[in-house]
Amino acid sequence: MGNSTIKTAEELAESFREISIAEFFEKNRHLLGYENPTKALITVVKELVDNSLDATNEARILPEIKVNLKQLSENRFKIIVEDNGPGIVKEKLALAFGKLLYGTKFHRLVQSRGTQGLGASGAILYSQLTTGKPTKIVSSTGKDIHTYELVIDTVKNEPHIINHNSEKNVDGWHGVIVELEVEGRYIEKEQSVLEYLKQTAMTNPYAKIIFNGPNGKFVFDRTIKEIPKQPKEIKPHPHGVEIGILRRMLKYTKSRNVSSFLTNEFSRVGKNSALQICKLAKINANTKPQNLSHEEIERLHKAMQSIKLIAPPTDCLSPLGERLLTEGLKKETGAEFVVAVTRPPTVYRGNPFQIECALGYGGNLQPDQQAQLYRFANKVPLLYNQSDCALTEAATEVDWRRYNFSQSQGQLPQGPLVILIHFASVWVPYTSEGKQAIAKYPEIIKETKLALQDAGRKLGRFISGKRRLLEAQQRRGLFEKYIAEVAEALSKITNKSKDNIKTKLETMLKKENIIDEAIKETEENGENDEENRTEGKD
Ligand SMILES: Nc1ncnc2c1ncn2[C@@H]1O[C@H](COP(=O)(O)OP(=O)(O)O)[C@@H](O)[C@H]1O
Ligand SMILES: [Mg+2]
């Protein structure tokens, strides 16, 4: 080794340089979901459509979203996504799209699809990285129409506007159109743009989505016309706040003293609880938040965790509900029987969340394969990283043999079954920025299992009812088949007319209503099932 490779601290000091977030993701695009051309195409469409759904939701507009995907060459695509949302004011437009970690959702606790402000700008970064082309954005809030062409200056993490013009808006159009070119690969099976849109339609039945792809047009029409109520924004709950966050909040709060800081910035803390927390932490409630010492903040944090408080409010959540889930799954899978369960909201690390699930069985579903799992977080389909996800873990931990399915250890059950799970929360703990899997918090796994077990029991009852029905029909068929022979034998013994006996036997069979009895019997058995009492408590 030559001396030239040895560096002194002083020499090294000259290499120090700040890294912009845009440069970081330019080198680590896989962290945003751009690790291969197929996934990249899905991610771009997903980020833009998610934004359109978020924006129309907040503005209380029934969404109509057009997705155009044009193949330019073997691995080059033009993507245009247009919505009828509120649009973006011109002062913010370039920043919203041309700056990473810039958005309207991160600092609010509200159930939405996007959060970090990395979605649209991430897609633009990927576009310019693989094609070198600027992105075109057209937007109007109902007034003038603005068109921007921009790229991201990655060293500065700032938009660099190449072109901007505005025109009069004659018909009052409002919304956003994003047009960009990317490297990608288009397929239509399994993990694909089409599958993402299909699953999106399943959990967003009030949206109309029109997809113009390389192989033609697909329209996902809305099946309901009401927009779900906009979930409320909430403040953090004291039980979920981490000490580092608390410290930051104390530093920047506008509240004059600790007591008002607690009541203003947290949910479920009234004057009394605030005073109680201060007392427990041995802090004067009138202290200026910025004047708390290191030790005092630690004591405050501890007191906030240990005091009894009402759980956070749950009107910040917007579940789909059992009716929507049932209709959505039936429509998209053609299952014969669908059962849905929406659990009551609960909490992980102070964040309210809610699990719902639906099971689809029979009909168009293939009998001899592993059940298909559809995972959703805040109504967004998760197509990748299935095995890293808390929802998958819960689905494989459920003992499906209790509900008449075969299942190998640690696997999903076998059979004509689809399992849909929806996780709704003000904060989705994704395992990475690619946002494809939910972190395995024990509270989340437990709730998901409870939902699946509840739905599983109902499905199990349907399946065993169906099996008994089939058996009863077979018995009846068998009897019917031999009716002529039985009649003949009886007529010989009794010396009565064979035809008379045959007619009598046939009427008897009709009256015997075996089917009704079989159904009743299964229902009664279902109610008294042993597992009903034991399960769900583990
Ligand atoms: N189609 C749209 N209509 C209205 N606003 C939008 C639209 N797309 C993006 N925005 C705004 O731009 C911001 C940045 O978008 P994005 O980078 O995807 O971040 P995120 O969705 O995580 O907040 C959003 O927070 C939103 O305020
Ligand atoms: Mg977004």
Q: In words, what does this structure look like?
A:
With 538 residues, this protein is α+β, with helices and mostly antiparallel strands. The chain is 40% helix and 19% strand. The chain contains 16 helices and 14 strands. The longest helix has 53 residues. It is globular and about 115 Å long. The C terminus is likely disordered. The protein binds adenosine-5'-diphosphate (ADP) and magnesium ion.
Q: What is the compact description of this entry?
A:
The chain is α+β, with helices and mostly antiparallel strands. The chain has helices at residues 9-13, 21-27, 37-58, 90-98, 119-131, 193-203, 243-252, 258-265, 271-280, 294-306, 322-333, 390-397, 442-494, 498-511, 514-527, 530-534, and strands at residues 64-73, 76-82, 135-141, 145-153, 158-167, 174-183, 208-213, 216-220, 337-342, 346-348, 351-361, 372-377, 380-382, 417-425.
Question: Could you tell me the radius of gyration in angstroms?
Answer: 30 Å
The fraction of residues assigned to DSSP E strands is 15-25%
Output the helix-strand order: HHHEEHHEEEEHEEHHHHHEEEEEHEHHHH
Distance between the termini: 61 Å
Instruction: Say which molecules are bound, naming each kind only once.
Output: adenosine-5'-diphosphate, magnesium ion
Shape: globular
- Percent helix among the residues? 25-40%
If helices are DSSP runs of H or I spanning 4 or more residues, what is the number of helices? 16
- Spans of at least 5 consecutive residues whose pLDDT stays below 50 are 526-538
**Protein structure class:** alpha+beta
Question: How many distinct beta strands?
Answer: 14
Please state how the strands of the largest beta sheet are arranged side by side. 5-4-3-6-2-1-7-8
Summarize the biggest pleated sheet: 8 strands, mixed
The average pLDDT value, as a whole number, equals 91
